[in-house]
Amino acid sequence: MRNIFLFIRRYRTFLSFLLLQGVALWFLFNYNRFHKAKGLGIANEFSGWVNSKYNNVEDFFTLRDENRRVHQMNDSLMNLLPQNFVSADTSVKLVKDSLPYDTLGNYRRYYFRPAGVVYNTVNSQKNYLQLNRGANHGIKDNMAVLSSDGSAVGVVVNVSPNFSQVMSLLHVQQKVNASLKKSGDFGTIEWDGKDPRLLTLKGIPKSIDIKKGDTVLTSKYSYNFPPGYMVGTIDDVVTDKSTNFYVLKIKPSARFYNLQQVFVVENIQYNEQVNLNQDTRKKIEDPKNYKK
Amino acid sequence: MSELLRNIFRFAAFMLIQVFILNKIPHLHRFITPYIYFLFLLWLPFSVSRQWLLIIGFLTGLTLDYFTMTPGLHAAACLLIAYVRPFLIIILTPKDSSEFNYREPSPRAMLWTPYLIYVFVLTFLHHGYMVFLQWLSFGSFLDFIIKVIATTGISMLLIVTVELLFPRKLKFRTNTA
Fold first, then answer.
1. Each residue's pLDDT expressed in tens, for chain B with a length of 177 residues
2. CA distance A29 to chain B (A)
3. Chain A touched by B12 (CB under 8 Å)
């Protein structure tokens, strides 16, 4: 027994090195799997506070671009206003209100919340954004994030009371469902971790005619992204003879370098969709059901 | 300024520079992210005990990790260099002189060549280990090699620039004073 204590005393530096190294690696590998870090709640509040102080200054330098984007967005919304449309029949009156559903039975499915970006990187292989809205403002995991001109930016992965972390499209583990505007075929947007100016779209069959410059939109099949928002344009077609699918290089339309204001989009039916999907799988793949 | 206060200031300054300048500058190349925050660990005084070095190293890395959302990555790398540092200092400095006459490692205390070797080895270890951990989860081997070399190169450049631009005034301490 005495020898064990002597041993520990003699090698205590090395042992504490091993111990701390173990803690660090445990953090690292746990986090990659679940996107939940130990003690992230408190650390997120702190780093969020520092980031928002810094952001107060930084915002001034991107105001011009931001203004232009907001103006374009406003412009496209102005075109949608009901008073732009004249009804031929004078007895019909267009009424729009903010109730969750209108008289035609259309339910509200997506809810937009504005948020500011307080921290953002592009030069890592796993890039995250930090937003100045959190659980207190109704932000939850898995909400989609669109930039101020309505192009796809990422998905919320972690929330603290006042801040939230967003996994950017520039993250090697990110997968977003997207479709071609022209034909509606859908595939998956990924990032290979190399060039932040290009994303990859996989899963479009080669039978479809594709040209450079074609538009890629968020898909109807995505659970978190509202359909029809811009992801980017096709920049290059990589020919891979081993598969029947294209590998397309996409130029993202969101400017990841100077994001400043974003929309956090909630799919109100997200839980229902995901639960239904899981239940179906359980029902079909349950061994009890096989035997029948 | 007391030793403790000076190091707290340095810590804050290095963290802010790393998080808000070096991590955010427009992409140089996909292999290169400039790193300099670990210079804080290289500049710690000789008198810090090995146990404390480990703890300080771990916390330094973890602080940066919470900003970059990679918990454990920089902490592991910093811990490694904090562990290796005392051995290197023993090898690279003459036994009796510098460790007692100067406060902390610097070109003046150790002379330029040993100091550069000291910085180079620790920089290489830091980047090598960190990129290795990233590579475990993702990436190809060639990327790994090039990335370590490129990142080490750019960090060395930064560190030498810092040493030339901001020479630290270290007093030569003697017993008589």
1. 688 898 999 999 999 999 888 887 766 676 678 899 999 999 998 888 889 999 999 999 999 988 888 888 899 999 999 999 989 988 887 666 555 667 788 887 788 888 899 999 999 999 999 988 888 877 778 888 888 998 899 999 999 999 888 887 776 666 554
2. 8
3. no
Question: How many other C-beta atoms can be found within 10 angstroms of the C-beta atom of residue A46?
Answer: 14
Which CATH number describes the domain made up of B3-165? 1.10.1760
What pTM value is reported for the model? 0.71
- The amino acid that residue A105 corresponds to is G
Residue B27 carries which DSSP code? P
Residues in chain B within 8 Å Cβ distance of A54:
20
| Structural domains in chain A plus CATH codes | 40-81+107-172 (2.40.10.340), 176-256 (2.40.10.350)
C-alpha distance from B1 to closest chain A C-alpha (Å): 25
B43 in contact with chain A, both atoms CB, cutoff 8 A: no
List CB contacts of B146: < 8 A, sequence separation 6 or more.
Answer: B31
Kindly determine whether residue A29 and residue B50, on different chains, have CB atoms separated by under 8 Å.
no
* Count of H-run helices and E-run strands, chain A: 6, 12
Q: Which residue has the tokens 């799919």?
A: A267
Q: Does B68 touch chain A (CB under 8 A)?
A: yes
